[in-house]
Amino acid sequence: MENKIKIMFGETAISTSAGLVCGKDIRNVLPQFSDDSILVLKLSHKVEVPVGDADYLVLRGKEVFAPAGQPVANENRQMDGVPCVQFNGYGPGGSISFDTAKVTGGELKARDNALTDCRLFATNIPGSNDCEIEEDWRIILKEGDAFITIPQSQNGGRYVDIEVCAKNHRHPPKVNEYLIKIDKEKFKVDKPAMCGQDILMLASKEPTEWLLNQKLSDGKRVRVENDQVIDFTVPGIERFETTPKEVQQGNSPTKPDLHQEDKEFLSSTYKKWELKMDPNAILVYDFLLPKGYNLEKATMMILIPPNYPGANFDMFYLCPCVSRSDGVAINCTSKKDLHKLIWQEWSRHYQQGNPLPSVAAHVSFINFALALEVGGTS
Amino acid sequence: MIQRLAMSARHYRGLRENLLRSDGKEAAAIILCHRGKTSDSCILVSHCVIPIRDVATIDRTEVRVSWDCNRIFTPAFVENFDKNLYSLVTVHSHPSGMRSFSAVDDYNDRRLFPSVYGWHDDKREHASAVMLPDGKMFGRYVDEEGNFSDIDCICVADHKLKFWHSKDINENSQIEGECQGQIFSVGTYSIMKHLRIGVVGCSGTGSIIVEMLARNRVGEIVLVDDDKVETANLNRILNSKSGDVHNKTPKTTMLKKAIATFGLGTKVVCVNERTDSFFAREILKSCDVIFGCIDSAEGRFHLEALSTAYLIPYFDIGVRIDLDQDEDVTHAIAAAHYVCPGEMGLRARGVYTAKQVASEGLHRKQPTLYMDQKKRGYLGVVEVHQPAVISLNMLAASLSFNDFLARIHYFRLDDDSQFAVQRINLVTGQYEHESCDDEAEQLFLRDLGTGDTNQLLINV
Q1: Is 0.90 surpassed by the pTM of this model?
Q2: Cβ count near A289 (within 10 Å)
Q3: Is A154 helix (H, G, I), strand (E, B) or coil?
Q4: Which residue, A323, B51, B397, B415, is most buried by CB atoms nearer than 10 A?
Q5: Which residues, 6+ apart, have CB-to-CB distance to A16 below 8 Å?
Q6: C-alpha span between B234 and B228 (Å, rounded)
Q7: Which of B361, B376, B446 comes nearest A307 by C-beta?
Q8: Closest CB from B277, B279, B362 relative to A305
Q9: E strand or H helix that includes residue A139
Q10: Helices B206-215 and B251-262, interaxial angle, to 10°?
Q11: Are strands A281-288 and A273-276 parallel, antiparallel or unpaired?
Q12: What is the pLDDT of residues B129-159, one digit of tens each?
């Protein structure tokens, strides 16, 4: 994440990273600053706040630091001009103000009237995750600071439970540890965003067989596609719900399948073959034609009827269309547009249905029909 | 989780012959099973029985049998076992009549089964069972750690149906019709209360079967029908009311509500789909018995396939009324079929044809192709409007239901195999019955007892 910023120390610009830092950290990046000098942060032209080693502040860029011009009387005096900060700006709260430049985590937390026991985070830090602020830390308030509170986790864990946040109308902080609820179970995740597919797999559900919805705090359900990325920091996501996909209903396409014996026959007889969907079919590439046709080979297709093997194969298709070498037109053929190709449909039917349909048997039938057409059978 | 073991007639007979020996000593066998898994049940379905013959037996006494694993569980066996995704069920006899597993059995199962789980990487279930001198069986699933859990029901889909429920095995209950005075009352109830019965089609014949099942206090009924009650149904569907038509109530819901009013405690599951739905088939595969009350060829094919793969006894009900040009009745037939998995099924008997199945499948999934083929005259489908008559429906449904009762109470004088199909023709005044115990067609035999690995229902 890009979080390099520049801060000023007197007239000098110093490159550092944005984020929650304490006074000691700042001293370490400043050049030639003696330990016993006092560091101040210039909030404005006239207002300076001394920065103690243990004081925290959020560096966002363009902060101006300087050595103390004069001895500092009261480290944390009351003053006007303390910048307002955003507090749960997305929910109840809005902006709040204090009359001292430095406040403790506890004092900030106390401003949340709804939650008695909560966790506090500094948010909106450029290029960085949100940072948790402990009860007893003292933080210097600056322009642009924003804070959020969320309910305490069960068992006091570090993971942010997004269901609990949503139910309490709180904005989840941007961290690396979340607890997300999928159906009835909660799962730990270690990133702030996840795609639908990964969420399903977390709950041991095959993305090809299951659908995912988000349940929002207003009761609305929103579908999550497999490749759609869900940002856990977006407020209002209570939980995720899975639903099995309907595999065999009219509208859902179903993958065709063949009996094991059929697959073995195809694999052992042909170098290249494949199954296609809608309409379900077997395609055999480089299918050899008997002598008497204008081509030596063509792609051959057999449609797999619904209920196969309870239903028989019927007819066959060739692509490209073939013609007899002797120029005589082939009876009972027509053109069909399927799977983005033009096929020659051969209307050849079994006299009597095969009680045990198989690809091998139908291929024999096809070879017989092709041979018969050019007079090759006795 | 409901746990079951289902066996085909042939397998059970073979097992019985091998286990109940005339010398009164224990014997053992192995059943290789496929599985049917649903959300609330696991069914082990017999695929192949391997008797443990004398050559592999180390010792047999009245209370113990020990056999040589080296001879049975060869490397080739284990490879085959892993590749074919089998579950293992070991069975031995208790000639002493002991109705529970012994300490020796416990010790042995705890030693053997954890190893068996090591023969495969995927998740499977294995079990151990016992056959008593009268042929009854009981058993338990054994998990990877050697924990036992009762098999709730062991069943055999023979001409005489057998259901052995773990809850009853220790009671002196007259399950096999030994006391005929209790038939049609307490005796029937004691069997029915444990059964989950699927009724596919909730119309003219289906609603009547449902009534009979519910009033006989069957444990659970699964209703499968995607239709809503319409005005035209009111002349024959039991419990249908004009209010249902007005509310467009699904037939399954209508029946479920009616059953609730009987107050007899039957659980009802409504599935508003047809057999072409994956979910309908999922639930049906966990049923102990299926009644087919439909007139579609596709539906019958799907039920035959389920019956074959999961070894479920299948009762099919049909009615036919033919009228000539003057609207005189030429045929009025009530027919009841019983399909024993592994034996001649409905297709072999000519109740439906593969061509009809193809045509209906096309109509459902590729309607444009269907219309095209119909126009060109390929389909040969003749749409016949048959009048529906409640009295004929009831005759057919009763014929089938009484057949079901006969197969669980064994009261017939002749062998039940003689009644694979029964017909009553009102026009000729004939009643006839036939056996159909030839082997099933190869198409079905190939998938007998294949459970979830079946390749009959892969293209629905």
Answers
A1: no
A2: 18
A3: helix
A4: B397
A5: A4, A5, A6, A7, A29, A59
A6: 12
A7: B361
A8: B362
A9: strand A138-140
A10: 20
A11: antiparallel
A12: 999 999 999 999 999 999 999 999 999 999 9
